[in-house]
Amino acid sequence: ATCGHGCKYGECVGPNKCKCFPGFTGKTCNQDLNECGLKPRPCEHRCMNTHGSYKCYCLNGYMLMPDGTCASSRTCAMVNCQYGCEEVKGEVQCLCPSGGLQLGPNGRTCIDIDECSSGKALCSYNRRCINTFGSYYCKCQLGYELKYVSGHYDCVDVNECVTNTHRCNLHAECLNTEASFKCKCKQGYQGTGFDCA
Predict the structure, then answer these.
(1) What is the average per-residue pLDDT within 102-115?
(2) Maximum CA pair distance of the chain?
(3) Which residues pair with 48 in a beta bridge?
């Protein structure tokens, strides 16, 4: 089975045919599936779509049960949580629907954790961290592009000399470097490589 365009979040099962992992869709499995828009809805009250998944949370006065349903809780109603709550040994605690969110100082609303600046994010050397509300993702560094290589996606150095995206002078040669390029004036010319005389 060969998939010319690759299967970003899935596996190749036939000629240009991808089988997507749960939570992803599209011809090359590169799109996040919005489970909150599915019928029947996966959550009883409110649904928050996340990258490759989703989270359920309840309206005020209800608490989230393990199966995604919301059970009435009079004590929860009094606390007025943004994303529902749970009762532990008679104590009421507000909940945040994602590990990338934390309870704010008021104990009721959820604020974003910036995984990129806190160092919690794990991105490989050729990827940079992009923070999102409740999560983060790893994007290829400048000078790299996402390519399907030997069975998986990876950030590969862009050869600006081959793709003709360099800005070298007509009388200079382009030399590809990791994540960038250099220009060197040809024999008989001198200058920066961007300007040769």
Answers:
(1) 91
(2) 85
(3) 55
By the 10 Å C-beta count (0-12 exposed, 13-18 middle, 19+ buried), 72 is classed as exposed
User: Each residue of 126-136: pLDDT tens digit?
Assistant: 888 999 988 89
Bridge partners (DSSP) listed for residue 145: 156
Q: Compute how many other C-beta atoms are within 10 angstroms of the C-beta atom of residue 2.
A: 9
- Shared domain for 38 and 73, answered yes or no, is yes
pLDDT tens per residue, range 18-37: 999 999 999 999 999 999 99
The residue segments making up the domain with residue 70 are 34-113
Q: Which of 15-19, 145-149, 156-160, 176-180 has the highest mean pLDDT?
A: 15-19
Q: What is the CATH number of the domain that holds 26?
A: 2.10.25
CB distance 137 to 130 below 8 Å:
yes
Q: Are residues 162 and 191 in the same domain?
A: yes
